[in-house]
Amino acid sequence: MRGTRAAQRYAKAILSLAKDKNSAEAVHEDMHSISQTVLNSWDLEKMLTSPVVKNSIKKSALLEIFKDLDAITKGAIDILLENGRINILHLVARQYIIQFNEMNNVRQAVVTTAVPLDKDLESTVLSKVRELTGSEATIKNIVDEDIIGGFVLRIGDLQYDASVARNLTRLKRELKDNTYVSKI
């Protein structure tokens, strides 16, 4: 993805400054808000990437949308505008979240289910992840009806597939290779 290396560098610098100023948690909340808002707003993303829209308009729009930003986050927006890199703001926000989570030993668990997770099931999954990995985790729920039922849990390189679709595929393979069933 274009701009990822630059986003990593900006995020690392912002995190370092935020740690020095004891504002890492507040900046993390800001970056989470920015990431989600830009991800969910096609218009905002197009405005930030448009070369036609002036930087002053971009800055005033961002400060109007995100009213309670930490001073470090506002400074980061100013630096990105000054360097002509405001188009990678959402990437910087995502990279900041990743680096912040790594610093605090928080992992991301991706849970794929056929239906959205409710709060009780989400807390059960979080406790299981804590038990398996020994670290805290955040959950990202992906809804995929193709798995029919059950779930697929991914944490880093670890994957646990308890989906109905996987079990059906395994059963089909076993029946296909069974010499008694193939004669019927």
Automatic annotation (TrEMBL):
GO molecular function: proton-transporting ATP synthase activity, rotational mechanism
Main localisation: membrane
Membrane topology type: Peripheral membrane protein
Subcellular location: Cell membrane; Membrane
Record's keyword terms, sorted: ATP synthesis, Cell membrane, CF(1), Hydrogen ion transport, Ion transport, Membrane, Transport
Pfam families to which the protein is assigned, alphabetical: OSCP
Top-level taxonomic group: Bacteria
Gene Ontology cellular-component terms listed: plasma membrane; proton-transporting ATP synthase complex
Family listed: Belongs to the ATPase delta chain family.
Function: This protein is part of the stalk that links CF(0) to CF(1). It either transmits conformational changes from CF(0) to CF(1) or is implicated in proton conduction.
Name under which the protein is recorded: ATP synthase subunit delta
Species for this entry: Christiangramia crocea
Chain's gene name: atpH
